């Protein structure tokens, strides 16, 4: 397991080896409502989650008020390459809404406000004291994010930046490489669809595991079952397992 040092912040220690549940809905979906997302977060707590990841200021604020677990907050904004908490001002708003950890784009791509990743992290540490999770897409991103001062690194963007292929499940190769190299905790996130895959992430060295769609996105879960039923009607093998 990566990232365990005497300097590891207590907030991160509290999620070590556990499941963080990402409670998000996309714009236009029936569940795109702060109250609904908070109820899902509360349900995740009952199921054994050790942390919550949430998107949007309203969701973050209400979850912070009602859920007594560390929260990784982010603000998706825009349609350009860098859209996960793309600027310092976005990150500052996320912290003020109540997130103990702010997730930001941790790639080496140019940020919309012109600040470097290191400048963004340094300002957040100095002005808020919040922890920073760098969502990265490659091994080199992870190295740069740690050098920039990120408190933890997530594999969230693997397969989405053009540097690595989009694996069918979690990118265990990247996860293991980062966990074996970085001193910062490496958090597995992205395409973790089954309990077995979550297990594999911890075995590969993840400090903690984030699961979202497979737990909290009914449209995707329903589609998996609907596809399996359709395969059965057609007399074919399941297209997804």
Automatic annotation (TrEMBL):
**What is the organism of origin for this protein?**
Subtercola boreus
Q: Write the Enzyme Commission number(s) for this entry.
A: 5.1.3.9
Cross-referenced CDD domains: NanE
Which GO CC terms are listed, alphabetically? cytosol
| One Pfam short name | NanE
Question: Catalyses which reaction?
Answer: an N-acyl-D-glucosamine 6-phosphate = an N-acyl-D-mannosamine 6-phosphate
Q: Which HAMAP family match?
A: ManNAc6P_epimer
Read off the Gene3D superfamilies from this record: Aldolase class I (3.20.20.70)
GO MF terms held by the record: N-acylglucosamine-6-phosphate 2-epimerase activity
Transmembrane segment boundaries:
none
Pathway assignment reads:
Amino-sugar metabolism; N-acetylneuraminate degradation; D-fructose 6-phosphate from N-acetylneuraminate: step 3/5
State the family it belongs to: Belongs to the NanE family.
Matches recorded under InterPro entries: Aldolase_TIM (IPR013785), NanE (IPR007260), RibuloseP-bd_barrel (IPR011060)
- Supply the name of the protein: Putative N-acetylmannosamine-6-phosphate 2-epimerase
Q: What does this protein do?
A: Converts N-acetylmannosamine-6-phosphate (ManNAc-6-P) to N-acetylglucosamine-6-phosphate (GlcNAc-6-P).
Its GO biological process annotations read:
carbohydrate metabolic process; N-acetylmannosamine catabolic process; N-acetylneuraminate catabolic process
Q: Which UniProt keywords apply?
A: Carbohydrate metabolism, Isomerase
């Amino acid at each position: 397991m990566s990232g365990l040092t005497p300097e590891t912040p207590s907030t991160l220690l509290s999620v070590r080896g556990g499941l963080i549940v990402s409670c998000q809905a996309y714009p236009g979906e029936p569940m795109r409502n702060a109250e609904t997302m908070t109820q899902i977060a509360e349900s995740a707590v009952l199921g054994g989650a050790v942390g919550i990841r949430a998107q949007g200021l309203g969701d973050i604020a209400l979850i912070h008020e009602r859920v007594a677990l560390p929260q990784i907050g982010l603000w998706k904004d825009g349609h350009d390459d860098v859209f996960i908490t793309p600027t310092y001002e976005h990150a500052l708003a996320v912290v003020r809404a109540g997130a103990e950890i702010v997730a930001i784009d941790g790639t080496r791509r140019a940020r919309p406000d012109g600040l470097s990743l290191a400048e963004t992290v340094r300002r957040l540490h100095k002005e808020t004291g919040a922890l920073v999770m760098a969502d990265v897409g490659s091994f080199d991103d992870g190295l740069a994010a740690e050098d920039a001062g990120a408190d933890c690194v997530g594999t969230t963007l693997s397969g989405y930046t053009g540097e690595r292929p989009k694996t069918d499940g979690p990118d265990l190769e990247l996860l293991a490489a980062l966990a074996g190299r970085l001193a910062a905790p490496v958090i597995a996130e992205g395409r973790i669809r089954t309990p077995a895959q979550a297990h594999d992430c911890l075995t590969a060295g993840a400090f903690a595991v984030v699961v979202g769609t497979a737990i909290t996105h009914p449209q995707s879960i329903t589609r998996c079952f609907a596809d399996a039923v359709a395969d059965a009607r057609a007399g074919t093998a399941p297209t997804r397992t």
